[in-house]
Each structure stands twice: as C-alpha cells, then as structure tokens.
Design goal:
heterodimer, A: mainly alpha, MetI-like fold, B: alpha+beta, Rossmann fold, OB fold (Dihydrolipoamide Acetyltransferase, E2P), 6-stranded mixed sheet
Chain lengths: 300, 361
C-alpha cells in the first residue's frame, strides 16, 4: 500500500477554496461580524454581543416590534397567496385542453406573466391601480367603489395580493398541468368503468398524481413570496404606513435607510435562518414522499 | 351476464367517411355467448384493442351496433354498461387501501355500506387478497395490483363481461402462469363472459375456448384452438398460430392435385372451380410434412438446418425461393444437404387469395 504523497496537489484545490471564500464565507462572516456590533458611522464599531438578537425577538423594542410585525405580515401574505394560487392553479390546469393547437396557445399565454421582470410587474400594477389614470383604479371608482391603494390599508393589500396571483398562478398551473399530463389514459378509462364522478376522478386520480408537483409548487411559491421585495416596494413602497412592509422591505429600510448595519445584519441572519429551516422541512417532506412512492413506480 | 352480439360493427379513427381500407376495425358481425372465454389474438395494430374499447364503450364505433342480450347498448356510456376492464398496466387508486380500491365502483354507484363490505370481503377472498385488504395498494407487486384491477370489475354483481387488455404484460413469467390459472378458475366459478386481448398465442390458446384471430382490422377466423390449428381459414392464421407456423407454398391446383415446380402433391379433396385470377397457395403445417432421404417421386428440398426443440425436430428447408419447415423423424440426417418431402394429404389445404377453399369430396 504505497500511496504517492504529493503536497503540490493542494494547489489544484486552492482555486476552489479561494472562490468559495470570497463569494460565500467572507461575506457571510462579515454579516455575522456586523450582527455583533453597533456603528455610528465613520467606520467606528462597538461590541454588542447578542444584543441585537435579543432585541429582534423582543416585541417591546423598536427593532423587535418592527421585525415581528413585518414577519407576521409576510407569513400572512404567503398564506393568502398560497391559499389562492394553489387551488386556482389546479383549476386552470384542469380546464386546459389536453391536445390540439390550443395547448400551445394556452401554454404561451400562461407563460407570459412569468417572463415579465418583477419591477415591471410592479410598475404595471402601480399604474393600473391608480385612481386618476389607471384603468383598474379609475373604473372601480367610477362604479362607486372607493378604491385607493395609496391611502387605504385594505386596498393596498388587495392590490399586492392580486398582483402576485396575476404574476405567479401560471407557475402553479404549469406545474400541475405537467403532473396531469403524466397520468396514463388507462386511469381515466378505468375510472369511467368504475362509474366515478368528475369529483371522484379528481380526488382518487388527479390529486394524488399531482401530489409531488404540488409540493414543489408550494415550496417555490412560499419561498418566493416570503422573500418578496420588488413588486410591493414599487407599488406601495411598504405603505400606507407600514401596512405592506414585508421583512425584506423592513431590512432594506434598516440597512440602507437608517444605515444600522448591526441591526440589519442580525435581522438578515435570522431571516436567512427561517428560510433555511422552511427549505429543510419541505425538502424532508418531499424526499420522504418520494421514497414512499418508489416501489410503485418500479412496478408500473 | 350477457350474450354479446356485434352487428356490422366497424370503427375508423378518421371518421366514417374514411376509405374502408383505413378502418382500424373493419365491419364484423359475430355473437359471443354468455359464459364463454374468448381471446382476441393478433399482432400489434391489428385492431384488437380497438374492438375491446368499442365493447367497453371507451370508443364509440363509427358504424354498427353492439347488443347485450339483444338490447342495443351502443349509445350507452361506459358507466352505464355493465362491463369490467383490466388494462395492460395495473390501475390502482394510490391513496386508497386495497379494500377501498375494491369498494370504489360500488361506492360510486351508491350501494349501501353493509352490502359493499360483504361484496369486498367476498371478492377479496376469491382473489386471495384478504390479507391485504387494509393495506395501501401502492406498495403491492404488479400481479397483486392486476388482481385488484380485476377485483374492481368483479365486485359488481351485475357485471356482464370482463375484458382484459393484455393484462399479463407487466407480470413476471412465473407469476403469469399462476395468474392465468386463477383467471381460468374464476371463469369456471363465476360463469362470466370473458374477453381477453393478447398477441401471445400461448396465452390465447390456454385461456380461451374460442379464439378470435384478427389481422389488419379484420376478424379472419374464430374457432377453438384445435380448429385454428387443423383448419386455418386464412393463411395468416396458419402462419401466426403454431410454432413454427404453417408452410405456405405457391402452387398450381387442379382437381385432386397440386403442382409445385412440376412436382405433384396429392390432395384429399377435389378443387375444380378455383377462381382463375386468384393467387393459389397450399398450406401445410410442419407437423404434417416429413423430411426423409431423397427418393424418386418425392419433392426434393435443400436442407438449411435442423432445429431440435427437444421433443421434436424441425428441418428448415428451401424450395426454390420458398422456405419451409418439416418434421425430421428420429435418425434423419442429410449428408448431401437435400431431402425428400412427404406430405400428409389430409392436412394439405388450398388457399385462394389467402382464404381457405373447401374442396369437394
């Protein structure tokens, strides 16, 4: 067992170490470093230990109050758009044609909103909803509905939610459609022979077969909506007041608006941690669901 | 339970106005008796699955009628026909247990719970599924899943016929035998009409008492395995059934004689009124041609090789352009590569344009 010892081999690994260090480790450690300190500008830093983290989790402080409130708003937002987009996406996928040229047409139309950059979507809805020149805002007010997303909390929320539904339901629908397309025709024929109603077919065949793509859709939509920044920022700027200030908007306000690097660093670490944990939960659930289905796929 | 009549039934995927040559199922009229075990046999694309789907109602035929016990059910949907169908790949409702899978067709039809439980228990026992009734159906093997598919059909007490669409494709060879004998046993026990689609002649011949051979959208012959073997109505049947298939040789036939390249083969019956422009061939199964040492008066052929199938040997011979197989009796050798062929006159059939011609006695 003669192993060749050649320490020069380390030079081959070095580039990777350098790239990872400069692109991931150092920036992350800088944030960790900031999160333990306070600064009043002039590049002067003061040690604060875990002070910011304590404040973050304490709603009675300014930082904690703002963070927890925006976190609550963000979770509520994610739940609402999931509750709308997932069922709506399923319905859209179910009502799409299975064959013919209309399939391509539907796919293109569905894909369109997904191709529009975030801030353009924000701008579209910002103008669309304006009571003075926007089509939506003007028409709503003209028919007697008092709608103004700049001054009314609920109007602002409705606008942000409808915008997200408009932008992202397609993604859920496309994923579901792919799931539906993979169901062999024999399943529908067997269900017909078994006398299944439309609802029974959905419950017994389509929903179980869409299970996996739905999990992916929920994961993607949750992560995306939890990290949402650009669209609501362009439309409402987080207002009126703080009513549509989500975590990322709050973070930017603290980091760039107030230049509180310590607080912002602590907040972004916690924010990051939440996202990682949610990711991990979804990943575990998905791989478990996958493992459970393995033998069946081998047989079929 | 029902007698099934097909009346001038045809189907074209291109619509009724398409030329008849393109029909997936060319017009067929036949009767399937109640309680029979039928096999639809033919190569891929011969229209057997189309015929099956027409009977189950998945496809509405372009032409003709289907009668169950004399009642026209052509316009009825699949749900309304009392048909059970088992598909090539097992269809299982993933989220349900085996028992719930079996109960599904009854639940959909609003059968009372007590009745459902009774039927499910009964069918579970019949198919040896009772140990699994409370287990998730997804984790079972392919053959158990096929049994569940079958059970979903049998669980309805009013089922008229059970249709099988190549149900053993995904089953391991060893289990195939078991499942096939199970089907046979069920057929005897339940007195159901069973229709079994397959391209495997062994499967068809062992399962069915009547085999319906299809070729190019047409039913070319329907009969017992023995009839198909002894008297193929079409050269395709002769060739498709039997291993090796029937020898088909172009010949001139006059009276009680067939001539191949000037050599005369005696026939048992007389063929005087053959259509003059038809392509005339004789067909004889390899089992009824014997390869012997060349002798004057015997048709002589070049021997290419001898296949030993264990219990029987077949000599593969060449006769001009035509190839044929002949039984090689024990001790047969052909040192110079030629052999004489002895035909059994009672098993030589005459075909005009591929169709069997009945000679006069």
């Amino acid at each position: 067992m003669d192993k060749t010892v050649n320490q020069k081999a380390w030079f081959l690994v070095l580039p990777v170490f350098l790239v990872v260090a400069f692109s991931a480790v150092l920036p992350l450690m800088t944030v960790v470093n900031y999160s333990m300190q306070d600064t009043f500008g002039n590049n002067q830093f003061f040690w604060n230990g875990v002070g910011w983290f304590k404040e973050l989790l304490d709603p009675s402080t300014d930082l904690g109050g703002r963070f927890l409130a925006s976190l609550g708003r963000n979770l509520f937002f994610s739940l609402v758009i999931l509750a709308i987009e997932v069922p709506l996406g399923i319905v859209v996928a179910l009502s799409m044609p299975r064959q013919g040229w209309t399939v391509a047409a539907c796919l293109v139309i569905l894909a369109l909103p997904l191709l529009i950059p975030w801030n353009v979507v924000g701008t579209i809805w910002q103008i669309f909803g304006r009571p003075d020149i926007g089509l939506l805002g003007y028409v709503l007010n003209a028919i007697g509905i008092d709608y103004n997303y700049v001054s009314n909390d609920i109007d602002a929320w409705v606008t942000v939610i409808v915008m997200d539904v408009w932008h992202w339901t397609s993604l859920v629908a496309l994923l579901c459609y792919a799931g539906l397309k993979s169901i062999p025709e024999a399943y529908y024929q067997a269900a017909q022979i078994d006398g299944a109603s439309r609802w029974a077919v959905f419950k017994a065949i389509q929903l179980p077969k869409m299970n996996r793509v739905l999990l992916i859709a929920v994961l993607l939509r949750f992560m995306d909506s939890f990290m949402i920044y650009t669209e609501p920022f362009v439309v409402t700027g987080g207002g009126p007041g703080n009513s549509t200030t989500f975590v990322s908007i709050e973070l930017v306000k603290i980091a760039l608006g107030q230049f509180d690097l310590g607080k912002a660093a602590a907040l972004s670490l916690v924010y990051n941690l939440i996202i990682l944990i949610v990711c991990w939960i979804f990943y575990t659930v998905m791989t478990n669901a996958g493992a459970e289905r393995k033998p069946q796929e081998g047989a079929a | 339970m029902a007698r099934i009549d097909l009346v001038d039934l045809a189907h074209s995927y291109g619509g009724n106005d398409a030329p008849q040559d393109s029909f997936a199922l060319k017009p067929v009229t036949m009767t399937w008796r109640q309680g029979g075990a039928y096999a639809l046999l033919g190569p891929s694309g011969c229209g057997k699955t189309t015929l099956l789907n027409v009977i189950s109602g998945i496809i509405t035929p372009s032409r003709g009628k289907i009668l169950f016990d004399g009642e026209d059910i052509t316009p009825l949907s699949t749900q309304k026909r009392n048909i059970a169908q088992v598909f090539q790949f097992p269809v299982i409702y993933d989220t349900m247990t085996v028992g719930q899978n079996l109960a599904f067709p009854l639940k959909n039809r609003g059968v009372p719970k007590a009745e459902i439980d009774k039927r499910v228990a009964e069918i579970g026992r019949l198919l040896d599924l009772d140990p699994y009734l409370n287990r998730k159906a997804t984790r079972l093997t392919a053959d158990a899943k096929q049994k569940i598919s079958l059970g979903r059909g049998l669980v309805r007490s009013d089922v008229a016929a059970v249709l099988f669409d190549e149900p053993l494709t995904v089953i391991d060879p060893e289990l195939k035998w078991q499942l096939r004998s199970k089907l046979k046993a069920l057929h005897r026990e339940l007195d159901l009409t069973m229709i079994y689609v397959t391209h495997d002649q062994t499967e068809a011949l062992t399962f069915a008492d009547t085999v319906v051979v299809m070729h190019d959208g047409r039913v070319v012959q329907s009969g017992t395995p023995a009839e198909l073997f002894d008297k193929p109505a079409h050269t395709f049947v002769g060739y498709f059934i039997g291993s090796p298939g029937m020898n088909i040789l172009p010949a001139e036939v006059r009276g009680r004689e067939a001539r191949i390249g000037g050599h005369v083969i005696a026939l048992n019956r007389s063929y005087d009124s053959l259509p003059p422009s038809a392509k005339i061939e004789i067909g004889v199964r390899p089992e009824f041609v014997e390869a012997v040492a060349p002798a004057p008066g015997l048709l002589s052929a070049k021997i290419e090789r001898v296949d030993d199938l264990g219990r029987i040997r077949f000599a593969r011979a060449r006769l001009g352009d035509a190839k044929l197989a002949a039984r090689a009796p024990a001790g047969f050798t052909s040192p110079d590569g030629t052999a004489g062929l002895k035909f059994d006159p009672s098993h030589v059939h005459v075909y005009a344009d591929s169709l069997l011609v009945e000679g006069a006695a």
